[in-house]
Design brief:
Elements lengths: L7 E5 L2 H4 L21 H6 L22 H15 L3 E5 L2 H4 L10 H16 L3 E7 L5 H7 L6 H16 L6 E5 L9 H5 L9 H26 L4 E7 L3 E3 L4 H23 L4 H9 L10 H7 L4 E5 L4 E3 L8 E4 L2 E4 L15 H15 L3 E5 L16 H19 L5 E7 L19 E3 L11 E3 L1 H11 L7
Parallel strand pairs: 1-2, 1-12, 2-3, 3-4, 4-5, 5-7, 6-8, 7-11, 11-12
Antiparallel strand pairs: 9-10, 13-14
């Protein structure tokens, strides 16, 4: 059987992690621009440290990123050479509405993305567009508190309407919000939230995410009205939790941790908040700020497909006090002694990928789309080449696991986009030396370099994988 004939092979990026050109084309300032390199990044991202303006003490990697803004024709040509069927990218909200609340959109920004989409179609590449990939205008954060405010729904709706009308016929695959569950882990990045002293942080986060879920439902409804060909997906940061032992408390902790992962995608795919979510909030003295019509809007406008990121599985322990915690994409996890780890301490678990695919398909029974999967590694340039066998090995094992989920388990899978198809800025650390791409970019963590693009060994390997529709993984 194998993958469907129209399987969408490709790669994924985000505007704030690859685009750069922050001061060009009338673009406004976004929250993600203010995420600094270094130890303060985590504090800013979690809303514990307020950074609403740039200072001289920090370096801000998103301002230049890997300069896709000026290199997009060259980069898309390379994606075309690999045979991409799809390219996932995101819209920088502040390119379209610099402050977020303008009457009219910025034509320079609209034209920029239109040119990108046309460039993709030149190579037979279908754009897969994330409308909001951790991107919030700073003007709206300062003025109304970001997604704390219900006003944000109207501003987002206007953005979506502008995009759906302008790019009708150019884009048909859309994701509303990237990693919707990340709000519980990186709330400033996910929703522009900074917390006040003694504030009920859970209430602030659930208020913000409720507004995002309503905005997502409105966008889904609007997309279908404007163009019946539009396919709208939700997106979550996935990765199944295993209990650390067969101790009942560990097993129960795994159930609870997995529920936290699915809590908001449940709303987007099923149309309502599950009872466990309501109880979870009750325990934390928080509640969903429903107003009349909210429940109907969510119920009537569920997504067409479910997309997700997967890098590693995680481990739940009822006791994390023994210094046994591992670093796993901002999510807490106990170490898994049965798995090898990446250079950045992420567990490498292809079978966990298959398990996650099955869990999601069992849960939602909607088509799935893997929109992030990859290995961050410290690649070394030797005599103009990068021999990244470790990346090929990681991707080979994960694609095989994905193939098993389709062939042996009957999972309905639309496509697969690796993160990131070209080196870019890491969301978690702000580094570029944590490289993911098939294409090396000559730029260091502090923005120094020629920004030259160099094909890695994995470039040629992935080209063959796509050519054979995943049949030749060697």
């Amino acid at each position: 059987m194998g993958f469907r004939k129209d399987f969408l092979w490709g790669g994924a990026t985000a505007a704030n992690q690859c685009e750069g050109g922050a001061n060009e084309g009338n673009r406004g300032v976004a929250n993600v621009d203010l995420m600094p390199l270094g130890e303060d990044r985590y504090l800013v991202g979690t809303g514990k440290m307020k950074m609403y303006d740039f200072d001289d003490q920090h370096f801000y990697p998103a301002l230049t990123a890997v300069d896709f803004y000026h290199h997009y024709k060259e980069d898309i040509a390379l994606f075309g050479e690999m045979g991409f069927k799809t390219f996932r990218l995101s819209i920088a909200w502040t390119r379209i509405f610099p402050n977020g609340n303008e009457e009219k959109p910025n034509e320079v920004g609209l034209k920029y993305y239109e040119d990108i989409f046309k460039e993709c179609h030149k190579y037979g590449i279908e754009p897969l567009v994330t409308i909001n990939h951790f991107d919030c205008p700073m003007y709206l954060i300062k003025k109304i508190g970001g997604w704390r405010s219900r006003e944000m729904i109207n501003y987002f709706y206007k953005l979506c309407k502008t995009l759906f009308i302008r790019y009708k016929g150019l884009v048909k695959y859309w994701l509303t919000f990237n990693e919707i569950n990340m709000i519980l882990h990186f709330p400033f990045v996910a929703a522009g939230l900074c917390f006040e002293e003694d504030e009920n942080e859970t209430q602030a986060m659930i208020t913000a995410v409720h507004h995002q879920l309503l905005a997502s439902a409105m966008a889904t409804k609007l997309a279908h009205e404007i163009d019946s060909n539009n396919q709208i997906g939700c997106m979550l940061a996935a990765g199944s939790y295993y209990p650390e032992t067969c101790k009942p408390e560990d097993y129960w902790k795994a159930i609870c941790d997995n529920r936290e992962v699915y809590m908001f995608a449940d709303v987007q795919a099923r149309g309502y908040y599950h009872n466990y979510a309501l109880k979870w909030l009750e325990e934390r003295n928080a509640s969903i700020p429903f107003v009349k019509g909210d429940k109907e809007l969510l119920k009537e406008n569920t997504v067409d497909f479910v997309s997700f990121s997967y890098y590693s599985s995680r481990v739940s322990s009822s006791d994390l006090s023994k210094g046994k915690q591992s670093e796993s994409n901002i999510f807490s996890s106990a170490k898994n002694p049965y798995l090898k780890e990446s250079d950045w301490g992420w567990a490498i678990d292809p079978l966990g990928f298959r398990s996650t695919l099955n869990e999601l398909y069992d849960r939602y029974q909607k088509p799935l789309f893997v929109v992030e999967n990859g290995l961050g590694a410290n690649d070394v340039l030797e005599n103009g080449s990068i021999h990244d066998d470790y990346r090929i090995d990681y991707l080979r094992q994960h694609i095989q696991a994905m193939k098993d989920a389709v062939e042996k388990d009957g999972v309905n899978l639309l496509g697969y986009t690796t993160w990131g198809c070209i080196d870019l800025v890491s969301n978690g650390t702000g580094e570029v030396k944590k490289r993911y791409g098939f294409i090396y970019v000559d730029r260091d963590n502090l923005g120094n370099g020629t920004y030259q693009r160099i094909k890695k060994d994995s470039f040629y390997w992935y080209k063959k994988v796509i050519e054979t529709n995943g049949e030749d993984l060697y």
